[in-house]
Predict the structure.
Amino acid sequence: MKNQDDHWDPTELSRRELLKHMSFMTGMVFLGPLSGCNSELWKRKSAVAVEQWTRGVCRFCGTGCTAEIGINKGKVVDVRGDEDGHNQGRLCIKGLMNRDILYAKDRCLHPLIRKNGKLEKASWDEAMKLIAQKFSESIKKSGPESVAFYGSGQLLTQESYVANKLFKGGIRSNNVDGNPRLCMASAAAGYISVFGKDEPPGCYEDMDHADCFFITGSNTAECHPVLWERIMNRKKVNPHVKIIVVDPRRTLTGDKADIHLPIVPGSDVALYNGMINQFILQGFVDEKMVKNYLNFQDGKQKKTWEAFKSHVSEYTPKKVAALCGIGPQDVIKVAHMFGASKATMSLWTMGINQQTLGTASNRLLNAMHLITGQIGRPGATP
């Protein structure tokens, strides 16, 4: 958008125009995964000339796409993908709209305080004074445990440090939490209990080598489009590549999968136990891995491999089918696809982590890779 001075006027962007742009760009995003490599679709011309490009990172999801931010006279006038990043110059709709949302007319640019039932504009000094007053009143009346701080994964390290010092060291309240606990606590517990470290062993480049993708609890196509296009590129070049999607919902990811298992919500553990039982029956167990590198335990009590086999043997295809709401043959088929692949890569997000059996599901997903030896080589990783 340009004004009379031929410079983009950020205040001209209305909510209606923003939605119009987003609708158009959404079409581009979803066209990408269907047509293979479409790097040109992810590029657009700047509304005005860019004086300087600065590198940054898109923070809208956990993918971590690197971006270049175009600056003109101190204002952001364009955003594009960084060719040197893992996203290879691509950005999805969320990243591409980083420019436009900065200047939406209804964006909140100042504090709001509720007065007489309505939110009214306030100065920062007035807002901070009110917050301090309310905190002081609560602490004086009910003690330091009456207040809390809830942060997020978007806080910088320095911000988290200061918040913790203020609440724990200054106010003397241990009520400090954040959405990362909901997002990743079960994953962290799963990784630590299996590998001893809170870190998945794979990387994005494994997508370029995997022959089977086991996607569970994730709508990758819509939530992480840049990664989904990378998976689609892999499948387009190598048609033998298989995609398994486990999700109670019907999604764009499931629609493009070779097999979609719409399991009953929360029945993941039964499915994974059933798949491990099939690995044993179908001969996909890496005996060397099991004998030399794996230990089994129930809580703090150590168990043998034979005891573990006896446990999962109860999860027959018929039993798993009844618990998960799928066909018995589906359990047998996905286990074969997972185990027989030269390199299987599992991907999961909040559908696994944010459930009551999240830690158990994480452990079993990691265990599936260890037991079958689908780990430690390109494309084979959780």
